[in-house]
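Hey, quick one: can you model this chain's 3D structure?
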Amino acid sequence: MSKIRGAILGLVVAFAMTWALPALAHQSRAAATVSVTAGKPAEFHFTLSAMSVKHGSVTFNVSNKGKLAHDFWINGKKTPLIQPGKSASLTVSFAKAGSFPYKCTVPGHAAAGMKGTLKVT
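Sure thing. Here's the predicted structure for all 121 residues.
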């Protein structure tokens, strides 16, 4: 009788694990956050806290430390114009890995150096 209970218990555990493991494997991971500083160390420069992120949702917290207004554009989305001393957030979804250019869209700013590439893995 004890062997039968053990076998039944083993089957129940195996059945439960068949359902639980795939659910655990597909849990969504937390969104990545990247801090972006505009206008420092030079007016026409961005500094990112990470130059590589995993694909999925990424929030960019952009702070303007410069003396001119700037914005931040990546993957077809951009912040509003950010005045000196102000901040804005931008959440962007990256469905696949690749290299994604970013820039300031204020005329002349990207040409002056406010641009770069974010690697998405």
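One thing worth noting: The longest strand covers residues 56-64.
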